[in-house]
Amino acid sequence: MSVGRGDRAAPPAPEGQWEVRFADAAPAKGWESLGRQARSNTYRAWITMRTDPRPAAEAPGITG
Asked: For the whole model, what pTM was predicted?
């Protein structure tokens, strides 16, 4: 089963936490690949997005 727009990034979040969903199929595929390559870091990122979804502060001197 392929994942795509609106699908959850992982199992449902517990009550009081945010749902992490994909905007389209490309991020879904990237997330799956990242999970295979760096499982524990991907899991920590998923937990952070569910519990504290604010954007990370940019490092000084870095521009977008």
From this structure: 0.65
Q: Is the pLDDT of residue 40 over 90?
A: yes
CA separation for the pair 61, 50 (Å, rounded): 28
Amino acid present at 7: D
Report the C-alpha gap between 31 and 39 in whole angstroms: 10
The three-state (H, E, C) secondary structure of the chain, written as one string: CCCCCCCECCCCCCCCCCCCECCCHHHHHHHHHHHHHCHHHHHHHHHHHHHCCCCCCCCCCCCC
Confidence of residue 38 (pLDDT cuts 50, 70, 90): very high
Cβ atoms within 10 Å, residue 24: 12
